[in-house]
Specification:
- By secondary structure, the protein is mostly helical.
- The protein has 2 domains: about 10-75, Ankyrin repeat-containing domain (Serine Threonine Protein Phosphatase 5, Tetratricopeptide repeat, Alpha Horseshoe), CATH 1.25.40.20; about 80-180, no CATH class.
- The protein is about 50% helix and about 0% strand.
- It is built from 9 helices and no strands.
- It has helices at about 20-25, 30-35, 55-60, 65-70, 90-95, 100-115, 115-125, 135-140, 145-165.
- Helix 1 (about 20-25) runs parallel beside helix 3 (about 55-60) and helix 7 runs antiparallel to helix 9 (about 145-165).
- The longest helix is centred in the last third of the chain and has 23 residues, at about 145-165.
- The termini are far apart.
Length: about 180
């Protein structure tokens, strides 16, 4: 029987994670690349928990895998939850408190801020009090690595947006320090 090419990996281990999820969680950059480029693995495939492989890399704080998956066109702006309000990838990172997770926040902020700082600001500020969804900064442990990284990201993104508008002659009202 002749095949027209590799078929996508279909093994679904515990919690609905596919091979790409497992490779991302384990930090196997080369395997992630091979699974996507040669094996047809889907970058936006969801586990039973709603996580994409990129989100799995964020949960484990693996910056190199995160960068690789974004370079392979994974969407870092995809919502975590299947229903609204959906948490952002920054909510996942805020729930951990390591230097590795803070590095992921810093890189994602830089990457997404270069593409669309307004969209980045929405992701960083996303909350819904009626659904008990706190913002990523509110979710992170106070004075922890990720809390500091999120606060810095929020401040830098707000300043970037203000500068862009100022260059156009528009001056935005300043938020109070409690909002930053």
């Amino acid at each position: 029987m002749l095949s027209s090419g590799p078929s996508p990996p279909t093994i679904r281990p515990a919690r609905g994670r596919g091979p790409l999820h497992l490779a991302a969680e384990a930090g196997h950059i080369e395997i992630c690349t091979l699974l996507v480029n040669l094996g047809g693995a889907r970058l936006e495939q969801r586990s039973d928990e709603g996580l994409t492989p990129l989100m799995s890399a964020c949960v484990t704080g693996n910056l190199e895998v995160l960068q690789t998956l974004v370079c392979l066109s994974a969407d870092p702006q995809a919502g975590v939850d299947r229903s609204e309000p959906s948490r952002s990838v920054f909510h996942l990172l805020a729930g951990r408190d390591t230097k590795q997770h803070a590095a992921c926040i810093k890189w994602l902020t830089s990457h997404l801020g270069a593409l669309d700082p307004c969209q980045l600001l929405e992701l960083l500020e996303k909350s819904d009090p009626t659904a008990n969804l706190l913002s990523p900064v509110e979710t992170a442990r106070k004075q922890g690595w990720t809390h500091q990284a999120l606060q810095r990201s929020l401040k830098q993104t707000s300043q970037r947006i203000e500068a862009q508008w100022s260059d156009r002659g528009v001056h935005l009202p300043r938020a109070s320090s409690a909002q930053r």
